[in-house]
Amino acid sequence: MSTVDALPRNAANHVPLTPLGFIAWSAYVYPERTALIHGKLRQTWQATYRRCRRMAAALQHWGVARGDVVAVLAPNTPALYEAHFGVPMSGAMLNALNTRLDAPTLAYILDHGRAQVLLYDSEFAPLVREVIAQATHPIRVVRIEDALFEGEHGDVGDIDYETWLSNAVLADDGTYAFDRREDVDADRPAAAPSAASSVPHDYSPPDEWDAICLNYTSGTTGSPKGVVYHHRGAYLNATGNVIACGMPRHAVYLWTLPMFHCNGWCFAWTLAALAGTSVCMRRVEAGAIFDAIVDHKVGFFSAAPVVLGMLINAPSAVQRRAPHPVQVVTGGAAPPAAVIEAMEALGVGVSHLYGLTETYGPSIVCAWHDEWDALDLTARAAIKARIGVRKLNLEHATVMDDAMLPVPADGVTMGEIMVRGNTIMKGYLHDATATETAFAGGWFHTGDLGVMHPDGYIEIKDRAKDIVISGGENISTVEVEGVLYRHPDVLEAAVVARPDTTWGETPCAFVTLKAGRHTDAESILAFCRAHLARFKVPKTVIFGELPKTSTGKIQKFLLRERARSDPQA
User: pTM for the full model?
Assistant: First the structure.
């Protein structure tokens, strides 16, 4: 062993990476700066840090330990933001639940993750009642009574959130511990006092590989899979967001993206690293978004293309153009160039990031080159529609063929997008087989098809299951959809394969028209013929509302079923 190899790792030169240190830093350096805005609430970093440590103490008092799961069912409110720190400070995993799921699915998730505690917003009291009745795993419940919720207060749970937090008291040594005399539930034994039941200033996990969060995939073709994140990956992706998005210190961020979606793409932790300000939003509405951007000087927000469409098509009386620079980060699906053009016309720059639940959200970004600024708007939008290159925190991103060899960088040859690095999930909870399959060959298999351009930028073309093979030719549904979105009457569009006796498959377009617009299939097809190769033009157009998942993604599997069975198709 060389002298260098013999140098030891020790407490002085190695501390586990965790985003929990971000909030401790912000509270220490910028204690009076605003961390959270929610209606009339203005909450400082110092107050937020204290509340998070109180939450950790309360959870430990209830017996929550390292590796346990704590679930939260809430819209984008301060309580859910605080849980991103308070839950892992207790040693547990945060499971931020999708508020759009039904009771059986939520019950399945709570049972599968074996959640010990559920925090829920009062708005969801009827749903939680059903969930608790269907779940088989015992769970303790805390009600969150948000001041901006105007409905009836919840009636499910052991205690309300504010009372629960207030029962954790500051000890003389600077730690927080739960005041056992204030325990409201006499029927449950209180946790025995111990050193482990208090939360110090400088909490970090024993191992950075410890789990910090549990997120569930949408489960559109089967039961949801539990994706496990670790502290190291959360730290790296949160800081990677700063670089990828060009975020400054004290950035103001609007929460249009659900925090339950890949933990808000790790931006909850990013804002703590920047001592920034989170503007919370219970409801995603066009007018409220425009107002918040202007009133709070919001510089950044994240949104799926469907939200961008909502802003673009909002009534002119609602739209407001900010006098300061605004940047939106979009992902979930490749944004059509027409959407990017329209957002820039509203004064909002668009950055396209690509990722999956398994990659902590964004992992590939369309890193911008200054010389592209000289291009016209259409050309710039076409470049931004590409997903780009790996974020700095991701070690490798490529496109490979079936033999797991890189495809030529010709912008034409398709393969599967594969990634690897420190911001890839630990694996799927209780599913070793699915984990092994996802990591086959030492790469994470995304299931998305793309091409590699000569400049090294990746462009997504389709999900592997969504590609249309017509007469032996591969047709990218993303490309066809991009053309459909340019039609002046089209609000939303999706293209799937329809069985055809002659060609094997042909493209079938499902289209939602903008309010007050009227057009027919021939107009849509004529527009496509003017912008696409003949074999790529849809053979069928079906009008109507598009089915979506709980996270706003179009459910193409339902459209494929309809394309096979609907007489219109």
Answer: 0.83
